[in-house]
Design a protein that fits this description.
mainly alpha, 7 helices, PgpA-like_sf, YutG/PgpA, phosphatidylglycerophosphatase activity
């Protein structure tokens, strides 16, 4: 029973079982989670995300054991739990276009895994499975904040 429940949570309630882009489909669950979190005070956002990320580590670890210990593409709890970090504290992310940009930026970094993200791949177990997504989300957060600052600066200058 617990194994089955863990499997469904780990696979994003089946979204991660998609034969095409399972990480992207699984990450979609992070959008409503991020939207909901952004309606909370920053301290609550951080606390809730810390708990969810801590819970995702054993969920992903035990799911990986069902896939011979590998970070199988069907395991997407790490993606949907980490995505809200890409927008944490960014009030503008409640705008659908900003949320969409955040999602695209996050998926870009999570899929390509440029340095320093790819270094997390060497960490074993559930911690390693979650770590690369957390780093991708944090790098995405920096990019999104910079883009929003540049946009704000550009639109606030007199013509």
């Amino acid at each position: 029973m617990l194994e089955t429940l863990n499997f469904w949570v780990a696979t994003g309630f089946g979204l991660g079982l998609s034969p095409i882009a399972p990480g992207t489909f699984g990450s979609l669950l992070g959008i409503p989670l991020a939207w909901w979190l952004l309606g909370r005070p920053l301290g609550q956002q951080g606390a809730i995300l810390a708990v969810l990320i801590a819970l995702a580590i054993p969920v992903c670890h035990y799911a990986s054991l069902q896939f011979a210990g590998a970070d199988h593409g069907s395991i997407v709890a790490d993606e949907y739990v980490a995505f809200p970090l890409a927008v944490i504290g960014i009030k503008a992310a409640r705008h659908p276009l900003v949320m969409a940009m955040a999602f695209v930026v996050y998926r870009f970094f999570d899929a390509l895994k440029p340095p320093p993200i790819h270094f997390a791949e060497y960490v074993q177990g559930g911690f390693g499975i979650v770590l690369d997504d957390v780093i991708a989300a944090l790098v995405s957060w920096v990019v999104i904040v910079l883009v929003l600052k540049l946009w704000q600066r550009r639109t606030s200058q007199p013509a």
